[in-house]
Protein: Cytosine/adenosine deaminase
Organism: Rhizobium lusitanum
Amino acid sequence: MRTLIENLDVLFQVDANNTVLRGASLVLNGGRIVDVGPAAEIAERCRDLTYDQVVDGRGHALCPGFIDTHVHLSETLSRAIFPDNLNTRAWVFNWAKPFYAHVTTEDEYYGALLGICEMLRCGTTCFLDMGSQHDPEHVVDAIERSGIRGITGRHAADNRPKDIPEGWSAEMMDHHFFPDAATALAALEDCVRRFNGRAGGRIRCWVNIEGKEPCTLELHVGARALAERLGVGTTYHLATSAEEAQVCERNYGTWPVSRIAAAGGLGSNLVIAHCVAVNDADLDALSAHSVKVAFCPCSSLKLAKGASRIGRYPDMMDRGVIVGLGTDGVSASGNLNLMRQMHIVSGLFKDARNDPEAVGAQKALRMATVDAAKALLWDDEIGSIEVGKQADFVLFDTDHIEWTPFLDPLQALVYSATTSSIAQTWVAGVPLYASGRIATLDEDAIKRKARQLSASAADRAGLFKLNPATSAVTRLYDEGN
């Protein structure tokens, strides 16, 4: 099917030159981009072509689809349930783990569908999911059914606490914690072989683990090595906060990134989620091994990770480290909206460092598109509007109040626009979100089911009985606890 989208007000290519075209057209053949350029040039070059579909682009801006480098689909049903006074470790061990202990495969399936609905409405066309707490088949099915592009896997850990913490369950310990790294890696390899390449290549499966304290050093190192052997990537949480770094130093005498580096565990197919607490030696190691980083601004602000105070993301980028934007899960961040992340990161370090040139709008857009694609090892097909790439993009209504008026379209996109002005979200040449609805999913039915399942899971987990004051601290994994 050949499609012409003509006479766009603005087209952001996000190519090597950060090309922004006024009065542009785009030609698609099936799910691929076959031509792009000024409208008059496209009309001349393609005058002999016939089209199955012609879309009037007047009153619209087009940019590459946003790519989320770190999300937890299995967390979606926990939106706005946990208290607002938690740091990262207390959030994980005292609240998230009890919730995960009582999440069923049905919960994860509908949580994935709900999260995908939100992402498509927010212009997200691809994501890296940390993975299911169970076998990921139901999450893969949700991705396939929706039409979105994504990477998932099976969440895994192998460093069990000596005693079962409050709110956890023996069943969760069994399905989440493998008896050793070798057993975990065997299960992860099986997942990759079963699911990688599903839906004509639109779905990929990686060797994903939880990372940090719940995983042994052997599993951290082994996951990346296994992923390299299988020709895929791996991702895990690391250096998520100063508190985690301090625990690591007390337990092992070094900071988290340096500990993995010393064991030979870093590489170009690794995406480290958060990576807030790093020192100069860590920066050197990240750069030397071409490690990718997923920065989640909203999560850092909500869980007091310290990005504005100790975050070294501008320094990473100055050293050539690819940093993509992520949302994290909806409980950790409050949303799956990459436009919020772009807005925050474009100005966060300007303010924190009193430097008006720190990051800014252009870099923020790249972090949400082509740099994110590089992190996901998918930039040969997605992340920019260029000939040969997949037709994944977002159309904005430039007649919306948010775009009225604008001289610099880039500033309008990053600083002024929100998801309110998103008109359409396309994946592989198909408009999955248009006219205020998602074409492939019944949102009303999904929302009804999600409300029911969320309340049941939280009740089973006993979250309504926990005291937010006494459960806001933890010493789990600290000095052997």
Notes: The mean pLDDT is 95. The CA atoms of residues 19 and 433 lie 26 Å apart. The first strand starts at residue 2 and ends at 12.
